[in-house]
């Protein structure tokens, strides 16, 4: 992702710096896919940080800016929640009207029994957000839940793409895949 706006380019540079210094861990890790890795990107270390959340919101707004008529953003709880909130707040600061939603792993077994929480997304174009992508499984599960309530999924947008085939999985499901930061940006490729 490149930006013509110098402020956007600076927000992206700062975000990459924060992620590299505070959210990339080296060692032996087992990923969601079961595969082994020598590094782990733990975006929650920074997505819930007051210095970094606004940067995430700015960078993700720039990433999704070209997707027309989007009413709401969100994804599977827990990883997508701070990303969606950052987009909601930074969007409001720019005069944009993005709502946020949360997709539960399973529908509630009490109350209204909902799996998708937040403003009604039926008949609306939405973007599924993800903090980091590994297998594409979480966005696919969110897409399924959103389609079940009548939302139109316009794209999946991730903050950090681990280059582990999530793009291919999402695109094979017929959904465009957008990534703000790649492994090369973090010096991990």
TrEMBL record:
<feature type="binding site">
    <location>
        <position position="134"/>
    </location>
    <ligand>
        <name>orotate</name>
    </ligand>
</feature>
<dbReference type="GO" id="GO:0004588">
    <property type="term" value="F:orotate phosphoribosyltransferase activity"/>
</dbReference>
<dbReference type="InterPro" id="IPR023031">
    <property type="entry name" value="OPRT"/>
</dbReference>
<feature type="binding site">
    <location>
        <position position="108"/>
    </location>
    <ligand>
        <name>5-phospho-alpha-D-ribose 1-diphosphate</name>
    </ligand>
</feature>
<feature type="domain" description="Phosphoribosyltransferase">
    <location>
        <begin position="96"/>
        <end position="169"/>
    </location>
</feature>
<protein>
    <recommendedName>
        <fullName>Orotate phosphoribosyltransferase</fullName>
        <ecNumber>2.4.2.10</ecNumber>
    </recommendedName>
</protein>
<keyword id="KW-0808">Transferase</keyword>
<comment type="subunit">
    <text>Homodimer.</text>
</comment>
<feature type="binding site">
    <location>
        <position position="104"/>
    </location>
    <ligand>
        <name>5-phospho-alpha-D-ribose 1-diphosphate</name>
    </ligand>
</feature>
<feature type="binding site" description="in other chain">
    <location>
        <begin position="130"/>
        <end position="138"/>
    </location>
    <ligand>
        <name>5-phospho-alpha-D-ribose 1-diphosphate</name>
    </ligand>
</feature>
<feature type="binding site" description="in other chain">
    <location>
        <position position="105"/>
    </location>
    <ligand>
        <name>5-phospho-alpha-D-ribose 1-diphosphate</name>
    </ligand>
</feature>
<dbReference type="Pfam" id="PF00156">
    <property type="entry name" value="Pribosyltran"/>
</dbReference>
<comment type="similarity">
    <text>Belongs to the purine/pyrimidine phosphoribosyltransferase family. PyrE subfamily.</text>
</comment>
<feature type="binding site">
    <location>
        <position position="162"/>
    </location>
    <ligand>
        <name>orotate</name>
    </ligand>
</feature>
<comment type="pathway">
    <text>Pyrimidine metabolism; UMP biosynthesis via de novo pathway; UMP from orotate: step 1/2.</text>
</comment>
<dbReference type="InterPro" id="IPR000836">
    <property type="entry name" value="PRTase_dom"/>
</dbReference>
<dbReference type="InterPro" id="IPR029057">
    <property type="entry name" value="PRTase-like"/>
</dbReference>
<feature type="binding site">
    <location>
        <position position="110"/>
    </location>
    <ligand>
        <name>5-phospho-alpha-D-ribose 1-diphosphate</name>
    </ligand>
</feature>
<keyword id="KW-0460">Magnesium</keyword>
<dbReference type="InterPro" id="IPR004467">
    <property type="entry name" value="Or_phspho_trans_dom"/>
</dbReference>
<keyword id="KW-0328">Glycosyltransferase</keyword>
<comment type="function">
    <text>Catalyzes the transfer of a ribosyl phosphate group from 5-phosphoribose 1-diphosphate to orotate, leading to the formation of orotidine monophosphate (OMP).</text>
</comment>
<keyword id="KW-0665">Pyrimidine biosynthesis</keyword>
